[in-house]
Amino acid sequence: MSVRVRQIQALARLAVLELYRRKDLIVVFVLSAVVLLPLALLTPFGVAGAGRYMNEMALLLVWLFSLVIGLGVSARLFPPEFESRTIYPMLAKPVARGTILVGKYLGALAASVSALTVFYLAYGFMVGARQGVWFPAVFVQAFILHIGFLVVVTALGLAGSLLLTPSANLTMCGLSVIGMLFFGQRLPSLAAAQPLPGRMVLTLIHWFGPHVEFFDLRQRVVHEWPAIGWGVCGVVLVYAAGYAAVCLAVASLAFRNKRF
Amino acid sequence: MNRQRLQTGLWAAVAGLVVALGQAIPYCLEGRLPQAPGEDVLALVLGDARLGVSRTLAEKAEEYFHGGVRHLNCTMQSDAETVAHEGHDDHDAGAHAAGHADHDDDHDHAAAIPAGRDPWQWIDGRVHEQAHRHLKGVQTVELLPWFWAATRMSPKNVQAYESAAYVLSYSLEKPEEGVRLLEEGIRNNPASPQLDFFLGEVLFNRLHDAARAEPCFSATREKCLRIPSDHAKAEDLSLLRLKAVFYLGYIAKQRGDLGRVRACLAEAEALAPKHEVTHDLRVLLETSGTKQ
Hints:
Number of helices of chain A: 12
Number of domains of chain A: 1
Helix content of chain A: over 70%
Number of strands of chain A: 0
Number of strands of chain B: 0
Order of helices and strands of chain A: HHHHHHHHHHHH
Largest interface: A-B, 33 and 31 residues
Strand content of chain B: under 5%
Shape of chain A: globular
Distance between the termini of chain B: 99 Å
Distance between the termini of chain A: 28 Å
Radius of gyration of chain B: 25 Å
Oligomer: heterodimer
Largest sheet of chain B: none
Order of helices and strands of chain B: HHHHHHHHHHHHHH
Shape of chain B: extended
């Protein structure tokens, strides 16, 4: 058991190191600064004091970059190994395929969550310094649920990387995640308004698609709504864990049956 | 080496051709494009799409006004009218001419949580349960960045100018800034009577400057007469003209010019004899006559 844990740890550490070696985070921070600094200096119609638009833009960037990092890291775990054939020495070692999969998944998740933590800390300090509100409960919930979002997205990216080509995987995952963020909430009403074939497709998407909009508490944070119940928070995290488990099961099946 | 030079030369020629074409298009196709020569880059690239984007930005401001709640039936304008009623007891004219909004100022109702057996909707309802709370007073400063973006995106967005000026003049108690913005809006939309009317209201109700307000109401009246309107617009324009006529009558009454008040009443009766505004104008004339 401890051997397996050590193997998973080693694989996960590699994925985290890979993220920081590529210096993605620095690029992301520079981009954020380029977008947010001019906005911070804005005084519309000569009147200062507005802050919510900044918070909204900052959170939008956090979501965008976390999606890019989460998908990017998870989708690039296996394809380079297959291309450079470094997967062979790894498989030749006494490491089970399931262990490789879980190790790589946890590595991608840890890398994404570490980047997310940096983003949220930066956001928390920015809001605290501007508005004097330091890490309220709804902010903590937003961060926790955002981790749930990454749990789903990295699992989805990993499963896709074993089933599709890298570009197809990124396109499909990106489209489905962004599509669900925009339309996930309205899928039942959209389905009801469609004729039969369309209705069936939308209903299937509603039941089996990744409902990533559950993890999005941006409106609550920006408009200072009260925190949601912790029970609801728990239910959403259970959903994330369940969805990720299904994705990993599919990935495991694909990896086990993969012919190299 | 020669080949490389040739390639560089070709690229430079192509770049020059592209720039020349870009410069020539607005002049060659003048009148056939939504963009006009000499407009800024944003106008050239986006054309009429600017107004669409601008409206989306103004909708975002509306969403902020409702504390982040989307897709509601009540609008900021209806609330604007309510506040105009509340805030100007000393100026009956503002209250009467603004119309009688039946809109409660605050809403404690929350967006409904979807019921049923769908677990996804159950979760979504709990996570995105919305508390509908209007921004009030200085909090409305949060709307300004979106209105600013909306007016910069398209100077033809009259509604954005009007709403931003309302926030500045009424909620933030900065009527001078509101007046400046409305004047800018009128410069950009010289044919639109709404901005003249609102400028007149701000000058009259907030700055108590009847002398500057009167020409605005006159301009509103004239522009309403000039606009060729379809059936849908005719009613709005008629109401706007009626309100402008009321203000003109009210200001004339303050001056003691009863002849002008009578002329305004005659115009109002011709427009909408049974409307409340006409009734108020009639009462105004009667009370002035009694006092005289």
